[in-house]
Amino acid sequence: MTKLLKGFFLSAMLIGTTVWGVLAVYYGDSRTGLAQAYVAAAFGLFGFAVLIGVLWFRWRIQWLLGHLILFIGILVWWLGITPSNERAWQPDTIQLPYATFDGDTVTVHDIRNFNYRSEFDYQPAYYDKSYDVTKLDGVDLFAFYWMGPAIAHTIISFNFGEQDFLAVSIETRKELNEEYSTIKGFFRQYELIYIVADERDVIRLRSNYRKNPPEEGYRYRLKGSRENGQRLFLDYLKKINELHEKPQFYNTLLDNCTTAIWVRSWVNTEHLPFSWKILLSGYLPEYLYESKLLEQQLPLSELRRQAYINTLAQAADQAPDFSKRIRPANTPNH
User: Fold this and answer.
1) Can you list the alpha helix ranges (DSSP code H) found in the chain?
2) For the chain, first and last CA: distance in Å?
3) Bridge-partner residues for 57, per DSSP?
4) How many alpha carbons fall within 13 Å on the CB side of residue 4?
5) More confident call, 225 vs 60
6) Mean pLDDT throughout 280-308?
7) Burial grade of 71 (CB within 10 A; 0-12, 13-18, 19 or more)
8) Measured between alpha carbons, how far is 245 from 267 in angstroms, rounded to an integer?
């Protein structure tokens, strides 16, 4: 039995390090070249040969050590890949937002407010706006679904009452002609960006113009003190300024649209404990409801029905009061 377990763990280690090493080399630093593909294939073949040789032909331990040395070399090289703010970015992520402070007044620069004709046909526009942090009236969570109930893109929006709403979407900062890949997101392929936007941009894009596949959007009003909301907002701005000065990598598992929201919430002592429902972001609203951070007067199914925004958003479309129109005043979720 002990021999069997040793064989199992050895096999798992060899398979895991080989697969990871192949993908790390293949994807490389932002782009895949022919040389990278050859090196990745060679490492994969060597790892497979070592696995077969160690398990079936009792090769010497030197083969296993050789594999580990190569793997460590790849790991050291991979850890040396650094993020950059100087790449040929897609037009929707060219501008990095930042904030300046004057007492309780915060001025957010380069708030995105594109005018969309379709998902990829838009007129870029940005503006600067000042907010009185003491006027922050609430925080909303938007969840957009396109591939079943388990996965959603989450967006936080800060409600400043008469000063309007400010949305923050945590995304990958993609280069020209670069597509998103969940697997690539594990391998330092994308820089991280906090898109600070008008809701007429970042919410309307997903509810009105994403067609392939379409996205279903829901808005939930978070419960909590005004002070907690203010601290969360200021922590977001701190992170936004950090990224403006020093880029960081996006990570599919550890630093994505939902885990980053959870990390930002650590600024408050009452933050949520970790749950698998944070990793499977589609279940975050359910977790918030169970944690009594959403309205409790209605069952979750009814709250979810009332939270649906696509119909309202499509009716409002380019209206100046888009944000108010997707928040019916007669619903508990308002």
Assistant:
1) 2-27, 34-56, 61-79, 199-204, 226-245, 259-264, 276-279, 284-290, 300-307, 310-316, 322-325
2) 61
3) none
4) 1
5) 225
6) 95
7) buried
8) 21
> At residue 281, what is the residue type?
S
Rounded to the nearest integer, the mean pLDDT of the chain is 92
- CA triple 299-300-302, angle to 5 deg: 70
Q: Which residues contact 332 (CB under 8 A, 6 or more apart)?
A: 295, 297, 298, 303, 306
Please tell me whether residue 81 adopts helix, strand or coil conformation. Answer: coil
State both tokens at 3.
């021999």
Task: Classify residue 43 as exposed, middle or buried by CB count within 10 Å of its CB (0-12, 13-18, 19+).
Answer: buried
Closest CA to 169 of 105, 236, 87, 238: 236
Residue with tokens 């970042």: 202
**238 token code pair:** 């701190």
Q: Which two tokens stand for residue 94?
A: 């060219």
Neighbours of 1 (CB within 10 A): 5
User: Which of 267, 139, 153 shows the shortest CA–CA distance to 203?
Assistant: 153
Amino acid identity, position 123 = Q
Sign of CA dihedral 141, 189, 208, 120: positive
pTM of the model: 0.91
